[in-house]
Design goal:
four-stranded parallel sheet, 3 domains, five-stranded antiparallel sheet, alpha+beta, Rossmann fold, ATP-grasp domain-containing protein, 9 helices, D-amino Acid Aminotransferase, Chain A, domain 1, Dna Ligase, domain 1
Length: 305
Amino acid sequence: MTRIALATCSDLPDLDVEDVPLLDALRARGATAEAVVWDDESVDWAAYDLVVVRSTWDYAKRPDVFLEWAERVDSVTRLANPASVIRWNADKHYLRELEDAGVAVVPTIWLEPDPRLNGRALHTRFPAQGEIVIKPAVSAGSVDTGRYTAIDAGSRGLAIQHARRLLADDRSVMVQRYVTSVDTHGERAHVFIAGEYSHSVVKEAMLDGPDAGQELYKREQMSTTPASGTEVEMARKVIATACRTFTPDGACDPSHFLYARVDVVSDDQGSPLLMELEMVEPNLFTSLGEGALDRFADAIMARAS
């Protein structure tokens, strides 16, 4: 019998609520499926035919340990997504690669840990107007992410403190323009399973002030949304561009990724911008896409065989 592990974290030992139905869907297809905590040292990962990364939302706290785990699992069984994809996608510097390859991304200023980046130096690097978002390059679930107003001295000061705290922890920092269309049209997420488009959802605006805590993740408010042909086509191109990263001759098959979520917002002219390409542990919101759970379960079974 096919054995499948859905990797999760100790805070969610039974998986996130969105992933729980996947267990029964896989069992209905004849597999033995169970939720397994990724950093449980007693687990024999080689005993599984496939390990699917799901609710491992604490990985950003120990990214090196998580990446070592992914490499180890990938060496003894099949891991989805593969360790090479996880390593590339776990650090948001991948956005720079996609932008260099022609993908339109949210404008970003990158700050790397440097003792010369004091408060004054950061002040000169930050945009002079508008709203900005401060986030670490390695993060999950919008943790350690805050929204600030560039022209307000108090808010700008908090943004500088936020960036300095992250830099002091030897973490790269992203300073992004806050795209105001998020407040009116939300952030759209286009989900692909085994390289094929599955469904789309929209996320309500989540950031309404400074970073406020160290929670595991910030709960997203999602709903179904009609698919925009323009955005789905953009998402296809994003995935194809990322796929070429993993094939020397550039002839990669997008089905190389068991799952991918392409998060998109609109610029001031209404054109789509890539916010993130999620291929480590994204919530796929299969409950909001007709037939999505079955498509995901079928794709997992095909990969495990």
